[in-house]
Design goal:
The complex is a heterodimer of chains A (282) and B (308). Chain A has 282 residues and is mostly helical. Chain A has eleven helices and no strands. Chain B has 308 residues and is an all-alpha fold. Chain B folds into two domains: 72 residues, no CATH class; 162 residues, MetI-like (MetI-like fold). The chains are: A mainly alpha (282), B mainly alpha (308).
Chain lengths: 282, 308
């Protein structure tokens, strides 16, 4: 609770949390909030020449190339972004924590092999790897979430690894060992509680990376597939037309940047609050 | 020292072997059938089988991989399935523009990142500091494709300052390079800011000021060289991230580089090209990290190789 109050004192973080809340509400209550059906192609949604309509009284954000309501598609797109953000990042955090803790706590051969594996993953151009995986697995919402998790766990694993090593080297862990505590006891009652702040920070920052990667994959056409709306594939569908229908890039673009920025700001503030030695420095 | 370098080189080779294995495995698993693609729709099953045999696609996985590795060591990346020429030739034609864009992009990243970080650290906790850090945050939170499209729209379509993408002189290079530079500068400016602040608090800085050096001289001769050290390994790590941005920026701006080649190959499931570009990117990333680590050793004699 204190943490939340401390976070809310920062205006940028309060604004970020508000925006995240808006996106969550939009995602959950999409059917009630969206003014139109997001997949319906309106006859009066295109000009006589067949061009999309700019923002107007019927379609607040304008329409897309097929005469569908852009605002409704963006509201439903919030679902896609959040589902991928939470599921995919959740998987990445679990894998990353498991690998990092195991490598840092067990050390030895297992540790080396795991860390060499993360080195290997770090040497892949992440986007090419994600594209190749998405191409193999035929993108659907869940596959895209999985692909992003496969790419994103590495960074968390490395952070948790170095954190685990530094905590395991602390005196109180050595004291626990001398009084006969088992490895498992040390792991669960000492290491994991101390790792929790780091995990929380990186889980928050990770959502931002996930949102960006989903948008990029969808923009390249190997992410979430139309007609299911995602903020990235709205731009993918309209890219050939964007110089004359800027709103088709601008609105979903703002949504992507704002969501990613919000999670970055919250994560950064969390890091500041949870690690007092860093205060104001990063 | 020599032992450390040898060890690092060995690791680098091992990692490259791993990368080539995983890349090849992934593409082996792709359900698309390249033999059918080359043969065309009207080909008889015999023709398809014949092509498959010619390409060695009927061999078991490990034999295909070893064969690929053997050719790779001889600089042979195979033939493109769709474009019917050597992958190495196709890549050689694209590498110039990519290196050009990379040099300009990374150069701008460093220039923007270091100078913003420097200013923010000096004006710490001021309005300017907050504005600069907000800017760097927006930079790292924006996907390349959106920034690229907006830049193209405002500076090329609306204002007409730059051509609408394509390859040519410096005016073609500027917009994609600025897009990459501005978005990538965020991590650098934040890092330079925090390491500057750390250095500013140290005793030798107070000493330098106390013996009467001017503020500017202390900043440029004592603070900056120390604060910039963590930037060097960051460049190595950044190459991987930069490559992802490059694929997107090259496709949006129609820049005829390796990223665009890879992107076209992905759409056509042209496996040898995808393998080639991925392998080359991995080589660049591994080499970048290696060079960065060795450069830090040269620049900062305090780092103890035996314990790292």
């Amino acid at each position: 609770m204190n943490l939340l109050m401390a976070l809310l004192k920062r205006k940028s973080v309060a604004a970020s949390l508000l925006f995240i809340l808006i996106v969550v509400v939009a995602a959950v209550f999409a059917p009630w909030l969206a003014p139109h059906d997001p997949t319906r192609q309106f006859f009066d949604g295109l000009t006589l020449e067949g061009a999309p309509l700019p923002p107007n009284a019927d379609f607040y954000f304008g329409t897309d190339l097929l005469g569908r309501d852009l605002l409704s598609r963006i509201i439903y797109g919030a679902r896609t972004s959040l589902i991928i953000g939470v599921v995919s990042n959740g998987i990445a955090v679990i894998i990353g924590t498991l690998v990092g803790v195991t490598a840092g706590f067990v050390r030895g051969w297992t540790g080396s092999i795991l860390m060499r594996l993360t080195d290997l993953m770090m040497s892949f151009p992440a986007l090419l790897l994600a594209i190749a995986l998405a191409a193999i697995l035929r993108p659907s919402l869940w596959i895209v979430a999985l692909v992003i998790a496969m790419v994103n766990w590495v960074q968390i694993a490395r952070v948790i690894y170095s954190e685990t090593i530094s905590i395991a080297a602390k005196d109180f862990v050595a004291v626990e060992r001398t009084i006969g505590a088992s490895s498992l006891r040390i792991l669960f009652s000492h290491l994991l509680p101390h790792l929790l702040p780091t995990i929380l920070v990186w889980a928050t920052l990770g959502i931002s990376t996930t949102v960006l990667l989903e948008a990029t994959l969808s923009f390249l056409g190997v992410g979430v597939q139309p007609p299911m709306p995602s903020w990235g594939n709205i731009i993918f569908e309209s890219q050939t037309y964007f110089t004359s229908a800027m709103w088709l890039v601008l609105f979903p673009g703002i949504a992507i940047v704002a969501l990613s920025l919000s999670f970055n700001l919250v994560g950064d503030a969390l890091r500041d609050e949870l690690d007092p030695t860093l205060k104001g420095r990063l | 020292m020599a032992w450390y370098i040898a060890k690092r080189l060995f690791y680098a080779a091992l990692i490259l072997l791993g990368v080539s294995f995983i890349t090849y495995l992934l593409l082996f698993l792709i359900p698309a059938d390249p033999a059918r693609q080359i043969a065309g729709r009207s080909a008889t099953p015999e023709v398809v089988a014949n092509i498959r045999h010619q390409l060695g696609l009927d061999l078991p996985f490990y034999e295909q991989y070893l064969r690929y590795l053997w050719q790779l060591l001889h600089g042979d990346l195979g033939r493109s399935y769709v474009q019917r020429s050597q992958v190495s030739d196709l890549m050689a034609a694209r590498i110039g523009p990519t290196l050009q864009l990379m040099a300009a992009g990374i150069g701008l990243e460093l220039l923007i990142g270091i100078s913003l970080g420097l200013v923010a650290a000096i004006k710490r906790n001021s309005g300017l500091d907050r504005a600069l850090m907000a800017f760097s945050f927006i930079g790292v939170s924006s996907p390349h494709f959106i920034a690229a499209m907006l830049a193209l729209y405002f500076f090329a379509v609306k204002l007409g300052w730059f051509p609408l993408g394509g390859y040519g002189g410096i005016e073609h290079l500027m917009l994609p390079a600025i897009t990459l530079g501005v978005l990538g500068s965020g991590w650098y400016s934040r890092m330079v800011r925090s390491s500057m602040i750390e250095v500013l608090h140290q005793d030798f800085i107070r000493t330098a000021r106390a013996k009467g050096l001017t503020r500017v001289r202390v900043l440029l001769r004592h603070v900056l060289p120390n604060a910039i050290i963590p930037v060097i390994p960051m460049i190595g790590i950044d190459i991987g991230i930069f490559m992802s941005g490059l694929v997107v920026v090259e496709s949006v701006f129609g820049w005829p580089g390796l990223g665009q080649l890879a992107w076209q190959a992905i759409q056509q499931v042209d496996i040898p090209i995808i393998v080639g570009v991925t392998t080359l990117s991995a080589v660049a990333i591994v080499l970048g990290n290696l060079v960065a680590d060795l450069a830090v050793l040269l620049v900062d004699p305090r780092i103890d190789v035996k314990n790292s």
